[in-house]
Every structure is written in structure tokens, then in C-alpha cells.
Amino acid sequence: MTNHEKLALKHQMSSFKSNENPQFRKIMIDKGWISSDPEITNLLENGYEIFKQNIVTRIMTETPEKVFLNNCPKCNKLARTPHAKQCRHCGYSWHHLTVAQFTLNDTFQITGRKFFLTGQIIEGEIKEGQHIDLRMLGLNKKIKIESIEFVLKRQDGKAWEDIALGTNELTEQDKEYLKSIHPFKKTLDIIIE
């Protein structure tokens, strides 16, 4: 959401919560949670539902590649949650497609080499040719693992090894995006397709 959209959402929620309590409403106005800025209030002039739909339309138009919709691989209908692996519509289960889980710690690229995602294997076994599902990080991509290497990390006098998964399937924009969202807090699925 843009900053104005965030402020409009805060305005809407604060107005709704303080609708029947003038003292509470004054507090929210004093804190700036209820806005009188026409740029903010104009976003809500057609109602809250239209406001939400306009945000969805804008996001889907501007950055559709960053929107993750967890659709069933069989019937293509939307699953109940982003982590769901069983379809509520047709009953298909795609648990078997996830062969490992990987906690992402860092990313890097050495000139002339692949782009590496480094971290630890939480469970399962990772092999070249499998794919890293990046949808949980905001990239609607499943990139092929082209190499697996070890990375020696040192920090505060301690040393440890991370696993480095190499790929050439990311654009420069994708790489910059992944670098910008560090530190990572997601566990990624390693899948077969």
C-alpha cells in the first residue's frame, strides 16, 4: 500500500471505532489517526469497499509478479491460505511436491557466477534440478537450483557453514528485491515440478 492508502485505512478504522464516542474521536483526531487531508479522505469518498477494490486493482496492475495467489495445481482455484497444500474445492493434495524446507539467511553474487541464496536445510534433501519457491518472499517465481555449494560464514569470532543454492533464473530487479528485504524471516519450500 502507498503511504496515502495506509493513512486512509487508518482514518477509516479510527473513524469506525470512534463513531459513537466523541471523546475517543477527539483523541484519534489529535493523534492524527482521523485525517482532514482531502488527499486521504478522497480515497474513501466512494466507500470502504471501493477503496479496497481500488487498492487491489492498482497492485495487480503495477506489480502482478509480486502477488502470490496459492492456486490448486489441478483445478486452479484459490486455496484457503498461502501455505495450504490441499484444495478445498477438488480435494487435490500437493504435499508431495515439497521435498525440503530451507531457511534463507542471505544472498550474494560473485561477478561472473550464479546468484546464491544461502541458508540452512530445515528438513528434507535438496538436489540440483529442484526448484526454490520464492512466492512467500513476494516473488511469483519458482527458480531452478543449478548448483549447491557450501559457504563459510564468520561473524563475531564464530564460523559456520551455510548451504548456497545457485541459480541464473533471476532478473537484476529480482536480485535487488531479494537483497532489499534482508533479513529474511521465511522458510522456503524446495519443490519438484
Give an overview in words:
The protein has 193 residues and is of the alpha+beta class. It is built from 5 helices and 7 strands; from the N terminus they run ααααββββββαβ. The chain has helices spanning 3-17, 22-30, 38-41, 48-62, 172-180; strands at residues 98-109, 115-124, 131-133, 142-144, 147-155, 158-167, 187-191. The chain has a 7-stranded antiparallel sheet. The longest helix is centred in the first third of the chain and has 15 residues, at 3-17. The chain is extended and about 60 Å long. It starts with a helix and ends with a strand.
Descriptive key words:
193 residues; alpha+beta; seven-stranded antiparallel sheet; 5 helices
Number of strands: 7
Low-pLDDT residue spans = none
Query: Radius of gyration over alpha carbons?
Result: 22 Å
Largest sheet: 7 strands, antiparallel
Give the mean pLDDT: 90
In short:
The chain is of the alpha+beta class. The protein is 27% helix and 27% strand.
List the helices and strands and how they pair.
Layout: H1 3-17, H2 22-30, H3 38-41, H4 48-62, E1 98-109, E2 115-124, E3 131-133, E4 142-144, E5 147-155, E6 158-167, H5 172-180, E7 187-191
Antiparallel strand pairs: 1-2, 1-7, 2-6, 3-4, 3-7, 5-6
